[in-house]
Amino acid sequence: MESPELPPVLRGGQPQGPRGQRSLDPHLDRYAERTAGMTASEIRALFSVASRPEVVSLAGGMPNLAALPLESLAAEVARLVATEGQTALQYGSAHGVPELREQIVEVMALEGISAHPDDVVVTVGSQMALDTVARIFCDPGDVIIAEAPSYVGALGSFAAYQAEVVHVSMDDEGLVPDDLRQALEAAERAGKRVKFLYTIPNFHNPAGVTLAVRRRAEVLEICARHGVLVIEDNPYGLLGFDNQIYPALRADDPDNVIYLGSFSKIFASGLRVGWALAPHAVREKLVLASESATLCPPTFNQLLVSRYLSTHDWKGQIKSYREVYRERRDAMLGALEQHMPAGCQWTRPDGGFYVWLTAPEGVDTKAMLPRAITKRVAYVSGTAFHANGFGSRQMRLSFCYPTPDRIREGVRRLGGVLQDELEL
Ligand code: PMP
Fold it and tell me: Domain Aminotransferase class I/classII large, which positions (predicted)?
């Protein structure tokens, strides 16, 4: 079978972008300094090859929407246009549709959060909330503490505001509090301004681990003592495979935590509806910043999410998502046991979309990727999830999108690629 052709960023070829580098772009000298941090994400580059039918993609984090009740949603869309078209198709406030903000408060109550709807700011996906938070807090050179590894989209936003990311380690119980303490002390000694801890406590992307409940108070206490905000990014929190829901950090420290949520993984990612729950004063700044970026989040999509929450069994829908993803997680873990060469290690997520695999010494997952794609399997190299080039022995494997059979086939191919690599 013909091998898929790789985009330049994966071939390590044509440099693209930052000022001073060789490039064919005639506008290179015009860009603002901050664009130097904007480099093509490995994931986006992978997308074109990984989405070919012959390639099993364990790369993308696309939710599986096959279980959505599309017909009744279509009826809801038609009703919305017919009965409220003039509002739904009009501009709205940057703060978000009031009835949706009330419903978001109810969604967050499942995680023990008690909040006022006025403190919720609706955003264009939680990605925009992340970007806005970085925009309102970070000057160039400010430090953000983030887990190693961390969400690639967050690292992209932080780089765009020229923040310096300092990574702290994780183990099977999530972020290691002692490491956090040491990182904060080191930054203070170096005279740096640490703005916030960015953390994904539940079913981590990409690490697949969850912050142990007994560590949560300690993490909050360390951040509060050092005067550092906590950004709690929680798009997967309701996707625990045993129906378990962990208590939000925000529930324990409303004044020092900004909580980010999303309908992307529990309803529909294409609607781009997420939110931030922020302490009162911060909320004002968030609204102003998002107003200048987008004027308002899409009214139609917000109203559709709101109708969905009030007329559909959304909790039942989440249960069916959990079942779909649990079956896929099981397929992946079973296949890893069967096909991975000795010396590989991986996490065993109890929710979410991702497994984090560490290959034996000597393997470079980024260098190996073109060979994996030639063998028709794709993953994301661990380096994409680090701001410091680390992660070259790691990879993220997503089990959310391919069917269980495709997952097994993909892992089988990957096992062969790794085996070849070790024999090189
Ligand atoms: N945070 C994390 C940890 C994610 O995994 C994602 C999506 N992959 C996002 C934020 C952004 O989600 P969205 O913008 O679709 O709400």
Answer: 58-414
Report the separation in Å between the CA atom of 152 and the middle of ligand 1, taken as the mean of its atom positions: 9
What phi and psi, each to the nearest 5 degrees, are found at residue 16? -135, 100
Interface confidence (ipTM) of the complex: 0.99
* Pick from 190, 134, 143, 202: nearest CA to 168: 143
Q: Is the CB of 132 under 6 A from ligand 1?
A: no
> Does the Cβ of 202 fall within 6 Å of ligand 1?
no
Tell me the three state secondary structure of residue 90: coil
Atom of ligand 1 nearest to the CA of 353: 5
Which atom, in ligand 1's list, is nearest to the CA of 263?
16
Are residues 118 and 287 in contact, defined by beta-carbon separation less than 8 angstroms?
no
Query: 73 CA distance to ligand 1 centroid (A)?
Result: 23
CA of 23 to the centre of ligand 1 (A): 31
The predicted model scores a pTM of: 0.94
Per run of 10 residues, the mean pLDDT along the chain (length 424 residues) is 53 48 80 83 71 91 91 96 97 97 98 97 98 97 98 96 97 98 97 97 98 98 97 98 97 97 97 97 96 97 98 95 97 98 97 98 94 95 95 97 97 97 87
